[in-house]
User: What shape does this take?
Amino acid sequence: MKKYSKFFNVWLLLVSMSLVTACTTEDNAVDPVGPQEEVITEFYNETVNKMIDENYEKVKANGYAELVIPASLYPKGMIKIPAADMEAMDYVIKAGHTAFVNGGAVRDGVMGKELHDVDFSTDATPDELIAIVPNSHKTQAGNLTIAQAEHEGGIRTDMVPYQAMDIRLKGQPGVPESPYFGQTYSKNLIDDSYGRDLTINAVYYDYKTGDIIDYHGGLRDIREKIIRTPVEPNLAFTIDPQSMLRAVRFAARYEFTIEENTAKAIEANLTKVDAIKPSLRRYVVIKGFCDKCAFRTYQYNVKYGVLGYLCPMLKDYIGNAEYEDYLKTVFDYVDSQKAMEASLAYCILFMPPVMKELGDKEPTFDNIQAAFDKLEQGSGQDKLFLLEDYRFTKKDPILIWRNYRLMTTDATLKDAALVNSLRKEFTFKSSLMLLNAMALTDNSLKKYADEWNKDLPTSTDLDKVEADYTVKDGEILTGISEHALIIPDGATITLESAGALDAIICQGDAKIILSKGTTNIFDCEERYGSAIKTKSGKTLTIDGEGELYVIGGQEGAGIGGNGHIVINNGTIEAYGGQFGAGIGSEMFSPCGDITINGGNIKAQGGDQAAGIGSGQDGECGNIVIKNTVKEVVAIAGSECDNHIGSGAGGKCGTVTIEDKTKVFNE
Assistant: This one.
């Protein structure tokens, strides 16, 4: 299925990526066990350090050794779990299963950092989990099927069955025997720890007891600021080449040292990252530049050979003092202002060679694209990008470069119409950020930066939103959020170059206005449910002259849910997730009536789903396409006979098309 996005690297969105959930936080699920004579204020206290050091001797001798740090020995409230995640774990525990918070949440808690991305491991299977936890469903996390619980406000909890050990680990030194080798799931927590990429990510918090469990010396490595793998690194990187890139990313983020044998294994095995699809390589590498330590991320990726291997286009720049002074100034400025966006990180990294190749040519999109393509094809940089892949990677940097070049000319400033047009570009904020940063490297650019910073429109910047956000009636939204946007009943909002890596959730009647000249994108491809979700019995109305692109998540529609949908205007492309309609119902779910009064509309269904109508085994109300539309393109997904109407196994009410000359399918 072809999907269109203008500002996201879809794997940035991802993919792994469960995103930060925002809700009330509480202390540990249990009180510390046993009496405490004094309040413990730090995790690495004398008692805990002694236990870690004694256990690490066993780890070195045996390859693994279980270490249990009781809740009574570390600070109460160190692991703060959102209430929604606690609710899901409570159901699992009451059903007699285990629940261990895993990975980054425990690592960050031990380090005294704010917890993000809280999910948990359990001995329950996905089928058992969806039977135990209300409002849950199965979904994919990479190659693993997991369960996911849905909570009010769009919050989700990932519930991950213990992973079985890879069959290639069988018989290896330091690897225990297991009856689950080569299977998908295990009943042993230690088996799951061997599927973790790094020891610092293989530490668990027992939700039932409050104990912290460590098999591979991860607690010691966090304390000593060391990056290692749970098994021999050459074997680890053969099984999971992505873990090499993650090792470098986490080393840069926390200023850790990659252990000597692990560092040598990265150098020896780096070519194995070719087995990772380019989109995932891009995600892991560029995600590091978005960790508020962009220049350090550059240095670590250079030190361990990653950037030189994946970005041969930079071979004449890596190590060059002038280039690296430029990077440090620009990266540090952006990091001081906001979290880096993937497209801006690309733009900054590749700007010198691309602008040199462009020379004095007019900075049109086509000219910059040609310069980028020429450099890339000559260097073999498809290790990072797919050639001619502009959907999620190169398109945004090219637009930022184009705007930046236009914004740094006197002729542009004298053209009021062009100034107004550039200010409405969805990449304008990134272009202005680049200009402000470049003005620090070249004083002649300051006058342009000053002019473009004047009279900026006031609105809510979604870049600064750190949790699911409930918008206000009449609010204007700009920027990109990693979280869901919630529209209260009866509210009207304006999207002005806005987007999210999560859904718009309508709690009742809602109206969305698309600001003229702007592009707005909501991409839920790696999530579950509709990108714009309506409420049963309520109506969503979309109007305005801007552009809207939406991609539904698994089993979800692009624009859908349970309520009615009215589209009056706009240029809209809506893509259903797997088994969901482009515009209409989700899989197995009903939706209300769909009325399209105007606009240029394209809707493409997922597998077995209609373009406009119902998803697989879903149900849709009446569909009316008025003769006042400019054009409607509806495309059914595979194994669906109806471009407009019912999906496979689904139902649909009456379909009325007033002017069939304006309605097409591809």
